[in-house]
Please model this.
Amino acid sequence: NAGVTQTPKFQVLKTGQSMTLQCAQDMNHEYMSWYRQDPGMGLRLIHYSVGAGITDQGEVPNGYNVSRSTTEDFPLRLLSAAPSQTSVYFCASSRPNRGDNSPLHFGNGTRLTVT
Amino acid sequence: QQQVKQSPQSLIVQKGGISIINCAYENTAFDYFPWYQQFPGKGPALLIAIRPDVSEKKEGRFTISFNKSAKQFSLHIMDSQPGDSATYFCAASPASGGSYIPTFGRGTSLIVHP
Model:
């Protein structure tokens, strides 16, 4: 059981380049989300999805796109990378409204540097 | 606005001591309060969680205390060990009603000296 798998682990981009951060989960979770983690700022929600074909914006969506064509996959696209997008990105999934089984399961992150 | 306020931002304790991290929330619709533990280079992982129908939940050396009237909850780590050194996040979310997106505190970096 792999849980939540994120690729790549590290990435360096030049300003203006685009790329896709991959996220896959094998737990049949309906809810998936992307966070960025910056020092002193905690975990900030970028985009989330409550099921295949449904996505919505979180707290800091600008500069990022998502799609959810399958239950398992939730890729995050950076359209035109900027230095302000240098961060550690985490994907998370859960089965909401399941009582105590509602915690998020996180991947191990992608560390992105934009120069 | 910051709906879940976490303090302190950093905490240093000696081995065997008690670590205490506090969180306060504003939204009375929150009714699920998990704590996550994050080691360097890893994603956060659920440590312990509580619902407001109880005032305390204990799992080993980790205890959540919950004060519904004050809208505060805290994590106590008894007999703190160097292996507990990590970043801890509190969170809050409604467990029902369709909006289950958690709101996170900004995290506490805990260092336990041997």
User: Anything to note?
Assistant: Chain B touches chain A through 25 residues (CB under 8 Å). Chain B has a mean pLDDT of 92. The CA atoms of residues 16 and 111 of chain B lie 12 Å apart. The two ends of chain B are 38 Å apart (CA to CA).
